[in-house]
Amino acid sequence: MPSRRDRRPGPSRSAPTHPPHPPRSPARRPAPPSPQESSPVSPALHVHPEVAEALATGRGVVALESTLLAHGLPEGDNRRVADELEATVRAAGAVPATIAVFDGVAHIGLDADRLDRLCTPPADGALRKLSVRDLGPAAGLGLSGATTVASTAALAHRVGVEVFATGGLGGVHRVFPVGSGAAFDISADLGVLARTPIVVVCAGVKSILDVPNTLEYLETQSVAVLGYRTDAFPGFYLADSGQGVPWRVEQPGEVAAILRAQQELGVASAGVVLAQPLPVDRQLDPTLHDATLAQGMELLRSRGVVGKDVTPALLEFFHHHTGGESLRANIELVSANAGLAGQVAVELAATPRATP
Ligand code: PSU
Ligand code: MN
What we know:
With 356 residues, this protein is α/β, with parallel strands linked by helices. It is built from twelve helices and 13 strands. Strands 1, 2, 3, 4, 5, 6, 7, 8, 9, 12 and 13 form an eleven-stranded mixed β-sheet that branches. Strands 10-11 form a two-stranded antiparallel sheet. It starts with 44 loop residues before the first strand and ends in a 6-residue tail after the last helix. Pseudouridine-5'-monophosphate binds at residues 65, 67-68, 71-72, 148-150, 166-168, 170, 187-189, 308, 311, 315, 330, 334.
């Protein structure tokens, strides 16, 4: 079917295809043009050969976020989880691409040495938490860091990856009492999803957030929200956040059909949130959750923790105060999301975009 929505010339379907994210201008790119669109030669961007090959041949690729490994899980568990996530994506028939920045280069797909480095962050904080606004400074200054949902989505889209998996999205934080530090905190994850056409598989938004306001914000920004085999928007550690979902899907193929339809209709400037809950019998006990959250929030307030330190600090508090239960739930939900993302990536690969 003919389509005029895709104004990007060139035959490569693995290149990013949406106008709001043009590749950097030739003036800023001293390296010669890459012979292979899917593996851009750039001093600031490196695509792992296996990922480049998968993109070039139209196989499904799943981007995996690295902040959850470096800053969201304890050292010791994170390395094992990194392998488990990649293996889960492969078992679904797709190719994993864990994303992080090392010495000023954004890597799409990490080898074992780089996964080691990601999962043993130096104590001096030299492995930063990088959101989108931090990518330029980190790359330009030759620094290293893990990527959040926001920066993983941006980099994945840059090379043509259409789906990625995480644990819980960032969102609108609960408001601290005025005068106690940060009264206003909205994750950059939401702003990036508003302008990046990519499917994010997650367990909803973290229960430490203001979930109703986060959903309102996603609606304002025209981000599609799908519940995977659920009518309830999940709450990360909890299967049900208490909010509903606008749409329910039952199969990975439906998600692929939805993304392709958005592209065909010219309404794919924003992302798609595919929210998959933990099974109820695997969620964190809600009473334990609520008590831990109240204590954690109080601790953050008293210590004046604000900005990008809030999420890692609260996750760590949970891991220490739930007897390992929050860690178990976190690992299970990220793993399940990687598997579902793999299935969606395979369906997307089998449903190529209509060419213009
Ligand atoms: N999911 C997890 N653990 C995490 C995160 C997601 O299971 O640590 C991270 C993601 O990188 C997400 C970030 O982008 O938390 C949100 O941080 P902030 O609220 O500061 O935007
Ligand atoms: Mn924030």
